[in-house]
Amino acid sequence: MNLRKIFGLNLQRLRRERRLSQEQLAHLAGCARAYLSGAEAGRRNATLDILEALATVLEVEPADLLKDPGTRPETR
């Protein structure tokens, strides 16, 4: 799975968990709703500024938006 698709899946999951519409999240993060739609579909790249803004609104670390949802945490 490519990074854009992973980002999109994580973005959509976190947005829905917080019960935000694309319009609401876009407003809070300072980007366009069309950008979020494309990002969730894996068609748009994120700048570091947008990644940070989305993570802040969603109350996660920026890296959480880029983690492969199929990856299991490492055990020691």
What's the CATH C level? Mainly Alpha
Domain module tally: 1
Q: Which CATH-level-2 architecture?
A: Orthogonal Bundle
Order of helices and strands: HHHH
Which residues sit in consecutive blocks of at least 5 with pLDDT less than 50? 72-76
Relative strand content: under 5%
Number of continuous helical runs: 4
**Would you report the number of β strands?**
0
- Going by CATH, the homologous superfamily would be lambda repressor-like DNA-binding domains
Task: Note the gap between the termini.
Answer: 26 Å
Radius of gyration: 12 Å
Main sheet record? none
Helix/strand/pairing category: mainly alpha
Could you tell me the mean pLDDT? 91
Principal-axes geometry comes out as globular
Protein name: Helix-turn-helix transcriptional regulator
Domain HTH cro/C1-type: 11-65
InterPro entries: Cro/C1-type_HTH (IPR001387), Lambda_DNA-bd_dom_sf (IPR010982), TransReg_Diox_bact_type (IPR050807)
Organism: Aminobacter anthyllidis
